Amino acid sequence: MTTKIKKSLHTELGHSTPDRITVRGRDLPSEILGHLNLGDMAFLELTGRIPTPQESVTFNAIVVTLVEHGVTPSALAARLTYAGAPEALQAAVAAGLCGLGTVFVGSTEGAAKMLYEAIPFGEKPSRPLADMAKDIVADHRARKLIVPGLGHPLHKPIDPRTPRLFQIAAENGLSTHYVALMQAVQEEAERVSGKSLPINATGAIGAIAAEFGFPWKIIRGFGVMARAIGLVGHILEEIDDPMAIEIWQRVEKEAGGPRQD
């Protein structure tokens, strides 16, 4: 297979000269530093423009939501890696980030993809959302797949983050048919399953990210960049008040030797 060679290499993201640094065409010291918060900077990096005040509030709410959720598998992976390699903080953070997939955090991607497949971005719903929701749920059940963005092992019957995220999106003009379809999917999934299946935070974020029009392939990245902050916090706590070695020793003690059951 032959690879086509570009005539020139180019990036719109950033460029440096001896006396200037530009990001998305803006001067970093004079136009960005002191003017943009971290969420707005991420938005600029992704879209090439500064968010409107309404977009800023909503996007920042999305990424703040994903920073921290306790001693989850990703936090455990980071803490245990740091215990074994304290000279490589970045490796510990990377280890934690590797656990962001279809179960934890990364289901934002699956929820957005599901919604875009039903209503391509820029188009209006072609039929009632309730009918679309029935087809989505039936398709997932037929393929024995979990509907992304629904259910939570702890937060039942409501994930407390979800109504607040939807409220913020609505207050800032970012709640139309994608949020409504996600809600219709939840209602249909609960109806046919007879179970409590709340829209979890990642389902809400997937729907709101679709309202923005972000490509579904990049939406998991919101969780990656946000959770990196949380994992650095976990490592700092691990330095000050370690638990990783005790977790390892307690698991070794309980899991080692002959089975007790």
From TrEMBL:
> Which SUPFAM superfamilies does the entry mention?
Citrate synthase
Q: Which GO terms describe its biological process?
A: carbohydrate metabolic process; tricarboxylic acid cycle
Q: Which GO terms describe its cellular component?
A: cytosol
Domain of life, source organism: Bacteria
Pathway noted in the entry: Carbohydrate metabolism; tricarboxylic acid cycle; isocitrate from oxaloacetate: step 1/2
Query: Which GO MF terms are attached to this record?
Result: citrate synthase activity; lyase activity
Keyword terms, alphabetized: Lyase, Transferase
Concerning Pfam families, the annotation shows: Citrate_synt
Q: What's its EC? A: 2.3.3.16
- Family per UniProt? Belongs to the citrate synthase family.
What name has this protein been given in UniProt?
Answer: citrate synthase (unknown stereospecificity)
Species of provenance? Variovorax gossypii
